[in-house]
Amino acid sequence: MSGDVINLRQFRKKQTRADKEKQAEQNRTAFGRSKAEKALTKALNEKAAKALDQGRLEKSPGTAAPREGFPDRKKP
Questions:
Q1: What value, to the nearest 5°, has the Cα angle with vertex 44 and ends 22 and 24?
Q2: What is the rounded distance in angstroms from the CA atom of residue 68 to the CA atom of residue 76?
Q3: Contact, 65 vs 59, CB < 8 A?
Q4: Alpha-carbon span 49 to 73, nearest angstrom
Q5: Residue-wise DSSP of 3-51
Q6: pTM of the model
Q7: In this predicted structure, what is the pLDDT of residue 20?
Q8: Rounded to an integer, what distance in angstroms lies between the CA atom of residue 3 and that of residue 36?
Q9: Is pLDDT above 80 for 61?
């Protein structure tokens, strides 16, 4: 039953460093972009939103959807 002896203080420090490096990598991908890259992404998102809105079907102002309970129907 011989295992490796582990110093918990050193293990915790090593784990903390690894967690910080992981967070730094995420921050580099999220915030480490140039102004031109950010502008390009923003323009592409706006273009996609505009294309989506152009395909949206809208009802004309003169036609209203029937209300719940069909009030224009006469009861027999």
A1: 10
A2: 18
A3: yes
A4: 41
A5: -----HHHHHHHHHHHHHHHHHHHHHHHH---HHHHHHHHHHHHHHHHH
A6: 0.41
A7: 98
A8: 54
A9: no
Question: 74: which 2 tokens?
Answer: 């006469």
Residue with tokens 């090593």: 14
Identify residue 11 by its one-letter amino acid code.
F
Q: What pLDDT, on a 0 to 100 scale, did the predictor assign at position 41?
A: 92
Residue type, 74: K
d(CA 76, CA 71): 13
- Helix (H) / strand (E) element for 52: namely helix 35-54
Give the DSSP H/E element, type plus range, for residue 71.
none
> Six-digit token pair at 26?
């995420």
Which pair of tokens denotes residue 9? 């203080």
